[in-house]
Every structure is written in structure tokens, then in C-alpha cells.
Amino acid sequence: MIELKRITTSDTAHYEFVEHLLTTSFPLEEYRPLKQWMTHTDSNDLFQNNIVLDEGKPVGLLTYWNLGKFYYIEHFAISEPLRNKGYGQNVLDLLEKEVDMPLILEVETPDNETAKRRIEFYKRYNFTLWANEYTQPPYRPNGMAVPMLLMSRGDLNPERDYDEICEKLYQEVYNIE
Fold first, then answer.
1. Which of 146, 156, 168, 153 lies closest to 27, judged by CA?
2. What is the distance between the terminal CA atoms of the chain, rounded to a whole angstrom?
3. Which SUPFAM superfamilies match (predicted)?
4. Among 10, 42, 77, 89, which residue's CB has the most CB atoms within a 10 Å radius?
5. What domains can you pick out in the chain, each with its CATH number?
6. Please, are residues 79 and 66 in contact by the beta-carbon 8 Å criterion?
């Protein structure tokens, strides 16, 4: 049975699994410095660092932020040997049962097959791709901003909610005023 378990850095084995999966699944410019990630994991009430377990065995990670009007999925990855085995769908189904607000996530622009497949994956689970231009701010000093797109599931509308969502993401997640 799939479960999401919120972890802290004191849960050493699970934390090390999740950190390794983060650093091997995402380019450096798409995650914050690990010391900052550790601080958020242990002391930021808005942030949840979750390990995905299947019958107690680590299979993935899901981090998200409770931003009041919506949840923002920051990172979601399944361990590479276990991809395309239904875990992603199961995690999204479980998340839908556990959270009571709309979901937002960032996806890479559809410039390559991997990005296109990722967008199609989320569309199959009722996420809508927003056409608004969006840039993920740099996670690191002197880091690169990354062109992205937003996707949503639930009662959010790009015309009505885009500015508010960007403001909340930039302030809370990326610490930009």
C-alpha cells in the first residue's frame, strides 16, 4: 500500500533516500541548496518533505507547500527503476484524498520529449496546463532562472489567479519580495 510520510532530517535513512533522489532526479538549478532544504524540512510549517513508501519500502519523494488557497507541489519523483509502474498515479490519487485545496506545480516548457511526456502525464490526472509565461526564480545566489509553465488541478483559473499564485510562490517558496 502506498503512503506519504512526512519526514525530518532526524529520520536519517529516509531523509538520505529523499535527498539522493532529489539530487539525481532534478538539475541543480531546479532545487534549493541542501542546507536550506534541510532547514525547510525541519522548521518551515508551510513545507512538507514526504517520502513515498510502498509497503514500507522507499520508492519516491513528494515535497509540497501549503500556501493558503492552494498547495504547491515543489518536487515529485519516483526512483528511476520503479518509474512507469503506476506509482506516480497512485501518489497523485493519494494526495488528492489528503489535501483539500487546489494543486499547482511547475513543469519545464515542452521543448523536448521528456518535458512533453511529463506534461501529458499530469494532464491525464486532471491538471490543466496554463499558457501564461512563467519563470522559476533562481534557487541559488548567481543561479539561473528557469523558463517553466504552471499546471493546476482544482478550482484555479489562469486569468483570475495567475498573479496571486506567482506572488505567493515568489514570496513563500523563493523568498522574493
1. 146
2. 41
3. Acyl-CoA N-acyltransferases (Nat) (SSF55729)
4. 77
5. 2-173 (3.40.630.30)
6. no
Is there a contact between 61 and 83 (Cβ–Cβ < 8 Å)?
Answer: no
- Give the residue from 36, 32, 43, 33 showing the smallest Cα distance to 10: 43
**What are the distances in angstroms from CA 23 to CA 27, 29, 34, 87, 159?**
7, 10, 9, 20, 34
The grid coordinates of residue 162 equal 495567475
Which position has the grid cell 496546463? 129
Q: Where are the beta strands (DSSP E) in 18-137?
A: 47-54, 57-66, 71-78, 103-108, 128-129, 134-136
CA distance 18 to 21: 5
The CA distance from 127 to 145, in Å, is 24
- Is the pTM of the predicted complex or chain greater than 0.90? yes
Grid coordinates representing 64 are 509540497
Predicted confidence band of residue 100 (pLDDT cuts 50, 70, 90): confident
